[in-house]
Amino acid sequence: MKKLLAAALAITCAASLFAAKKQGKVLNIYCWNEEFQSRFNSYYASKLPADVKVNWVMTPNQGGAYQQKLDEALLAQKKAKADDKIDLFLVEADYALKYVDTPYTLDVKKDIGLKDADLAKQYKYTQDVMTDSKGKLKGVSWQACPGGFIYRRSIAKDVIGTDDPDEVGKALSDWDKFDKVAADAKAKGYFMLSGYDDAFRVFSDNMKSAWVDKKGKIVIDPQIKRWVAMTKKYTDNGYNNKANLWSAESFAGATKTGKVFGYFGPAWFIDFCLAPATLDNPNGEKALGNGSYGDWAFCKGPQGFSWGGTWICGAAGSDNIDLIRDIMKTLTCDGAVAEKIAKEAGDFTNNEDAMAKVANSSYQNPFLGGQNHMKFFLASAKSINKNNMSMYDQGMAETLQAAMADYFNGKVDEQKAWDNFYMSVTERYPNLKK
Q: Residue range 112-123: average pLDDT?
């Protein structure tokens, strides 16, 4: 009897091991737009096993819709059928910490199987963001996101007298100089920025303190106060076009007849957001003559900053661990793939060696008039520090921008705008205090 029981246990254990290694046939990926889908399709899809189906569950970020959809699915993960379980999900910098210290994200090394050697060339901050309180890495990114100022060449020539990135960079190398050029641009009928929120990330990324202290008190960093003062000045003086970020009005300023001097942003903003908005014919060739495409260039601007970023997380309960590992390794660790993405899509990718190689190559970005803008990112990318990140970043930013819009428009005074901010943000986060 004992021998029969032992044999049965051995068979059961073997079956369990086999089941644990068996990979699923449906890969469920949760995301909010087509950016990662584009990278996946262009640089990984050809490696997919023929019998695996990719199911994209795409929900817009606006109003927290994506997070709500993702949270509902993660909470139901244990009871979900194998083919319905989340395998991969994407998170943004603004709310990444919400998912890092939870059991819903897999350990990239222990659970998924990436090695230190695989991850060695990534920018340190991209790993710091996704490292939990116990030192476990919970997500990886294919991109790093240092930012700068993307400006219209023809307008720069008219206002500054040159469109050369080094010379324009000198003319905009601090905020006093930036303000002077803004006044000169206004005198010639241009807007220095498109709207209220264009410079927000430059200031918020340079905050010396987190939004909330250890006692739950809301902290307003001097950089935020500086953004408010500058934006009010730009609105009152007509230096901006009174547009909200992401609005049709904001991007209209970048069209062929648009009058906006420039936009602040990282590489993903250049490639994924601004460039498409400049095309008269979105289905036409991406080349000089199609709208304002090609009439742009890039410089560091008055203050270094970073903005955003997207991280890939493996979901606990996935039956596609081997596939997750290969996707992460290919898209975020492979230097050749990182170089290819940078050259073909203009993204600043998460590989120090690959980016140095591209910066020193003959690479030319057609949207930026043939400029190799990668050199402007190199130093900034290595110096990015996200020590002040918190789970409140997105909520604070959105609430502040909404509250201050009325002040910028002259509907309320500054004190009332701050009162409205505190009222809204404490309703959103009842555990916080002024």
A: 98
